[in-house]
Amino acid sequence: MDETAITMRGVRAGYGATTVLHDITARVPRARVTALVGHNGSGKSTLLGVLAGALAPTAGTVERSGDRRPALVLQHTDVPAAMPMTVRDAVAMGRWADRGWWRPLTRGDRAVIADCMDRVGVAGLARRQLGELSGGQYQRVLIAQGLAQRSDLLLLDEPGAGLDRESRRRILGIFDDLVADGVTIVHATHDADAAERADHRLPLKEGRLLAGEPALERAQR
Ligand SMILES: Nc1ncnc2c1ncn2[C@@H]1O[C@H](COP(=O)(O)OP(=O)(O)OP(=O)(O)O)[C@@H](O)[C@H]1O
Question: What ipTM was reported for this prediction?
Answer without folding.
Answer: 0.97
